[in-house]
Amino acid sequence: MAAGDRLRAERRVLGTTVSYMHHGIDVGDGTVVHARPHDFRRPFAGGRVERIGREVFAAGSPIDVVREPAAAFSPATIVARALRHVGRPGYCPVVDNCEHFATWCATGQRASRQVDLVVSRLESAARTVAVAVSARAVGGAAARATARLGLGVLVPAAVAGDVAALAAEWRACRAGKSVAQGRLEGARAGLATSVAACALVGLRAGPAGALVGAGLGLAVWAGGAIAASASGGRS
């Protein structure tokens, strides 16, 4: 770790087992500049940018260096940009959080991979549910006759797939894997969950029903991915 590095350390959402990565800028003298809420129990109640010791920033967790996206400025410039904002008020977990601030210091762009993951998966879930509704409208009679699959199964399966995809991408992000690798792992988990959920319900009608269910699960997930590509989004 050196001056200008983007640092991150794992933190937990208060009162839960859900973890996230807290970001800051290494000043190079044992301190870190980061954005934080005034009260972690009320993350939407505002916050500030402050300079703290590296040990305080870590809060007992290992510290990693963030490499993606690549820095657009020199280490000295990154540190200067961070220090210039110490004491600045303002914080929002959705549009102005610690990762937004650290990424802006290094690249000039406000971005948060963690927020992007959640937002993109919500958009993907909406698209996939729309595909599930269409699949039910087109193939509903066959589904009812064989696997008893209707919207009551297809929609939850679609949502479950995106929840599984989000969980896989979140784990990849926390593990420091690239965005591309995270998306690949998310797609695999989402597809497997969608297929398994529909196949499990279809199994009530026997092996043939399980196959029909698996096919519909695959079609729903693939349809969502195609819809994402057509809209310029991602699966």
Structure report:
This protein is α+β, with helices and mostly antiparallel strands. 56% of the residues lie in helices and 14% in strands. α2 (75-84) crosses α3 (98-107), α4 (113-146) packs antiparallel against α5 (151-174) and α5 (151-174) packs across α7 (207-230). A 5-stranded antiparallel beta sheet has the order 4-3-2-1-5. The chain has helices at residues 54-58, 75-84, 98-107, 113-146, 151-174, 179-202, 207-230, and strands at residues 6-12, 19-26, 31-37, 47-53, 63-66. The protein has 7 helices and 5 strands, in the order ββββαβαααααα. A hairpin with a 6-residue loop joins β1 and β2. 37% of the residues are buried. It has 2 domains: 6-111, Alpha-Beta Complex (endopeptidase fold (from Nostoc punctiforme)), CATH 3.90.1720.10; 114-230, no CATH class.
State the gist of this model.
This protein is α+β, with helices and mostly antiparallel strands and about 240 residues long. It has seven helices and five strands, in the order E-E-E-E-H-E-H-H-H-H-H-H. It has helices at about 55-60, 75-85, 100-105, 115-145, 150-175, 180-200, 205-230; strands spanning about 5-10, 20-25, 30-35, 45-55, 65.
